[in-house]
UniProtKB/TrEMBL annotation:
Entry-linked Pfam families: 3keto-disac_hyd
Protein name, as recorded: 3-keto-alpha-glucoside-1,2-lyase/3-keto-2-hydroxy-glucal hydratase domain-containing protein
Entry-linked InterPro entries: AL/BT2_dom
Gene3D superfamilies: Exo-inulinase, domain 1 (2.60.120.560)
Classification lineage: unclassified sequences, metagenomes, ecological metagenomes
Domain 3-keto-alpha-glucoside-1,2-lyase/3-keto-2-hydroxy-glucal hydratase span(s) in chain numbering: 96-234
Gene Ontology MF, one: hydrolase activity
């Protein structure tokens, strides 16, 4: 067979191939035409079926008389009052405060085992931490409710006597702990110990505040994975040069007005004198005075920083505790609330 094909001239083979291809094209064309005719026929039958069904339905509707109603029939229908739809109430993400001190006894707390500690007592809803030889304090015992991050703690404190910290708070920061110092190193240093092995007296949180005796201060501390912040109420007010009592009172009245509070000069002066018993002496000396209201005193980014306690006996205050150093401090209204985690940061797209 192979030899027979090879004996056919090449021109004849080419002609045979050409005829074969032409016949194939003709066959395919006829096939497509046939399929098209069948499709058109089927579509026409389906369209006729739809028309027949529609006519049947139209006849049925006509027999029901739905299109022959009295034009005044709608006016005679009874009126139906439709109550307005109540607005949708969205649930709010309110995070409640949890009291940590009941004001009656030391339930949930215990005296910290400091050597030479002073007396600890609960009086009139307040926690009194009296002078010791060095450090005196209390620890919170219910560790199960303590978060490690994303939380706030608020408390009120006042100094009765002494010349050092009167309301130091030790608190969790992730897997470690730190201390917020109030009036350390002689009575004025305020800050957090320790950040990158530096104490509250030598890192970015260091500030110097004057704490008056027998005056209540409210502190609010917030811990997140990225930030450590503290607010204080009342807030410090710097005395400008050549200030007088009248000018300071005027400044406070104007500040209160911005916050929506209207005060007479007489009432404003009474409030300032209660916060600043030595106001007349403070002003010419350009000493620290306080205005009512909360102000942020610490705002520290702690990402990529080592936050931990100062080595020493103060570590006994962990995970949560209050302490004084050769001072008499009073604590009340200790509360905690957990905060929702911050939204995850979006990773920038690579270009």
């Amino acid at each position: 067979m192979y030899n027979l094909i090879n004996t056919v001239p090449s021109s004849s083979v080419a002609r045979i191939n050409s005829i074969y291809l032409q016949e194939m094209k003709t066959t395919l064309s006829l096939s497509f035409i046939g399929m098209g005719v069948l499709c058109l026929a089927g579509c026409e039958q389906f369209r006729q079926f739809q028309l027949d069904e529609r006519n049947k339905n139209a006849k049925g509707y006509k027999e029901l008389g739905l299109f022959n109603q009295d034009p005044n029939a709608l006016a005679n229908l009874p009126k139906v009052e439709i109550a307005p739809k109540a607005p949708k109430v969205h649930a709010t993400n309110k995070v409640g405060w949890i009291p940590l001190f009941n004001g009656k006894d030391l339930t949930g707390w215990e005296e910290t085992d400091y050597a030479g500690r002073g007396k600890v007592a609960v009086k009139s809803g307040e926690l009194h931490i009296e002078n010791g030889l060095v450090i005196t304090g209390v620890n919170f015992t219910n560790k199960t409710i303590l978060p490690k991050t994303n939380y706030e703690i608020t408390y009120q404190a006042k100094k009765v006597n002494g010349s050092d910290f009167f309301a130091l708070l030790t608190f969790p920061v992730g897997e470690k702990h730190a201390s917020f110092v109030t009036g350390g190193w002689g009575g004025a240093v305020t800050g957090v110990s320790s950040i990158n092995s530096m104490d509250a007296s030598e890192n970015n949180t260091t500030i110097y505040l004057k704490y008056n005796k027998d005056q209540w201060y409210t502190f609010r501390l917030r811990v997140t994975p990225e930030n450590l912040s503290v607010w204080m109420n009342p807030k410090e007010h710097l005395i400008p040069l050549n200030a007088t009592v009248a000018s300071i009172v005027k400044a406070y009245v104007e500040e209160a007005a911005k916050a929506g509070q209207k005060l007479t000069p007489k009432l404003a002066e009474a409030i300032l004198r209660k916060l600043n018993p030595e106001l007349d002496a403070n002003i010419p000396a350009r000493d620290t005075i306080y205005f009512p209201g909360e102000a942020q005193i610490i705002d520290e980014n702690i990402e990529d920083k080592v936050v931990e306690m100062r080595p020493g006996e103060i570590e006994l205050s962990a995970p949560l505790g209050f302490a004084t150093f050769q001072s008499y401090g009073v604590i009340r209204n200790v509360r905690l609330r957990k905060l929702p985690p911050a939204p995850a940061k979006k990773t920038p797209e690579k270009k």
